[in-house]
Amino acid sequence: MTIFQKLSWMMQMGIRDLCGEMAHPLESAHKNISPASLDKLEKKIQKSKSAISSTATHALGGVGVTPAKVLCVLDMPSATEDRTGEALSGPEGELLKKMLGAIGLDISRQTHVAYLSPWRSPGARVLTNIETKEGLNLLNERIQLVSPKVILLFGIPVAKALLNIPLGQARSKIHTYKEIPCFTTFAPSFLLKNGDYKKGAWEDLKKVQAFLNNQ
């Protein structure tokens, strides 16, 4: 992503203060590998008969490289993803790509995107405790396989499920999950409806970039 593309993204995000230091692209550290163990996990998800799987059109466990520099965790597939069965499709996926690209992360070579629940809940309602537990068990398996250097959590349900603290508190510092550094920010679906929070998301992303640059 060129500096002009980054400036364009920041303008789209509604960020007017462009005087700070711009993000520098990160070098790609991993190759796109699809180990048999990850394939088994995907098949396990597809065959699952959980309480919520019967109401979803498609199951999406995750997509991306293995191992990954950054594992991004969303709460559930978007309406477009559920309808098409294609991860990162729709406006939420496009915004996520722009957010990661702005801090120099190539989503096709450095990241892995996963979901707290592989299944979209009816009307995107909040996941029940049972649904959260089912999804978290699958996510924990994925984390072990993906072996990320950093985990980036998007949204209130994900922060609560993995860190057991509100998003507002979680955003203030670095956490750990499974001994992996963990950052939090707003979900793309939330930012699409609440543009005033985009500047805050940009500040969160810069913290992730600074951490990775110091590794």
The overall average pLDDT, rounded, is 87
- Main beta sheet: strand number and arrangement? 6 strands, mixed
Beta-sheet strand percentage?
5-15%
Structural class: alpha/beta
Q: Low-confidence segments, ≥5 residues, pLDDT <50?
A: 16-33
Secondary-structure element order, N to C: HHEEHHEHEHHEEHH
**How many separate helices?**
9
CATH superfamily: Uracil-DNA glycosylase-like domain
CATH C-level label: Alpha Beta
Helix content: 40-55%
Form type: globular
From the coordinates shown, what is the CATH architecture? 3-Layer(aba) Sandwich
Rounded to the nearest angstrom, the radius of gyration is 16 Å
Word description of this protein:
The structure is a single chain. With 215 residues, this protein is an alpha/beta fold. The chain has a single domain, classed as Uracil-DNA Glycosylase, subunit E (3-Layer(aba) Sandwich). Helices cover 43% and strands 13% of the residues. It is built from nine helices and six strands. The protein has helices at residues 3-12, 36-47, 79-84, 90-101, 129-146, 156-163, 167-170, 188-193, 198-213, and strands spanning 62-64, 70-74, 111-115, 150-154, 175-177, 180-185. Strands 1-3-2-4-6-5 form a six-stranded mixed β-sheet, sandwiched between helices. A hairpin with a 2-residue loop joins strand 5 and strand 6. Helix 2 runs antiparallel to helix 5 (129-146). Residues 16-33 have low confidence and may be disordered.
Q: Could you give a short description of this structure?
A:
This protein has helices at residues 3-12, 36-47, 79-84, 90-101, 129-146, 156-163, 167-170, 188-193, 198-213; strands spanning 62-64, 70-74, 111-115, 150-154, 175-177, 180-185. It has 215 residues and is α/β, with parallel strands linked by helices.
